[in-house]
Specification:
four-stranded antiparallel β-sheet, 2 helices
Amino acid sequence: MRELLVDSCRAAGEDGQSRGYRYYILVGEMEVSGGLACESYGVKVVSEDSGEWAEVPDLTIRPARIDALMDLLVRNAVSPVTLRDVIDDWL
């Protein structure tokens, strides 16, 4: 699986402390049927401060859909802790 760095941001947390995050698109392969495979996309978020990270692979096979999700994650400064909740709502 490849990781493509898309963006990074800094945002103030609830405690007022500034936190930095890096956002990656994960590119892998997903078996479809009859031995065929296609490119699949997921996301990864890394905290620049603590090194904590979370990833969710194989969310979609549509590049436009993963781009829209990545825009949502960066715009809202989603952290590794909240990534899964945001993905669940997005799906």
